[in-house]
Amino acid sequence: MTLLLKPKRQRRFRSDRRTRALTFSTLAWLKFQFLCHAGPTEVGGFGLSHADEPLFIEDVLVVRQLCTFVSVAFEDLAVADLFDEMADAGIPPSRFARVWLHTHPGASVEPSSVDEATFARVFGACDWSIMAILGRTGRMSARLQFTTGPGAAIALPTRVDWSDWPDLAGSLAERVEAWRQDYAAKIHVPRPKDELPRTPSNGSHQHPLDTLDYFPGDWHAFQ
Predict the structure, then answer these.
(1) Beta strand 99-103 with 128-134: parallel, antiparallel or unpaired?
(2) Confidence class for position 197, pLDDT limits 50, 70, 90
(3) pLDDT digits over 1-52, tens only?
(4) Whole-model pTM?
(5) Where along the chain do its domains lie?
(6) pLDDT of residue 188
(7) Long-range contacts of range 71-77, CB-CB < 8 Å, 24 or more positions apart?
């Protein structure tokens, strides 16, 4: 995993908080788009924020996960390894475990019921957190929630900072190949026979994929 620990240039962020948006660096946006279009399933990850601006995403961190058309399940050890790697790099959870990114393989960017339940369970104890969804048509949704005080949730606009594009264009082929290798190593899709619905002994008709979740059951972002 390649981490963008320091920006290549001094960035100036807007001081007018009324116009704040979830902003992606050039590389973070291109990587997010690659993940969205590389396969037929959803893909999940974490947004690595700039040290001075939590709404500026420098990179998309991907861990090993089981992906289907409707859900993603992160591997327990992969999440633990990410926390260890970030700790070794001196990066606090407030920079990499507050912005939850995932893709939808269709045009809709509205959170599903599984998305909402996962966001509430995993990030509900954080002082702030963001859920952002990218669809295949380029549309994106983002929601910021606060749990301090009375609590609140607001929709965020999204944008891309293309200022680094001229400096990065020449090395894009190498970066895409690195993303391709990362995708092949970490994104796993169940075999078709594993996705066939079965009727449980209790007579209900719950699809087995409905039990998949984005995070281990006992994991929380504030830990």
Answers:
(1) parallel
(2) very low
(3) 555 554 555 565 554 444 689 999 999 999 999 999 999 999 999 999 999 9
(4) 0.79
(5) 18-192+202-211
(6) 95
(7) 71/42, 71/114, 71/209, 71/210, 71/212, 71/213, 71/214, 72/41, 72/42, 72/43, 72/44, 72/102, 72/212, 72/214, 73/212, 73/213, 73/214, 74/44, 74/214, 74/215, 74/216, 76/216, 76/219
CA angle 147, 15, 46 (to 5 degrees): 45
What lies within 8 Å, CB to CB, of 119 at 6+ separation is 100, 111, 129, 131, 145
- pLDDT (0 to 100) of residue 11: 60
| Beta strand pairing call for 65-67 and 72-74 | antiparallel
Nearest to 6 by CA among 25, 30, 29, 20: 25
Out of 2.60.120.10, 3.30.160.60, 3.40.50.12500, 3.40.140.10, select the CATH number for domain 18-192+202-211: 3.40.140.10
Question: Residue 213: what residue type?
Answer: D
Q: Is the pLDDT at 207 greater than 80, yes or no?
A: no
The CA distance from 188 to 117, in Å, is 23
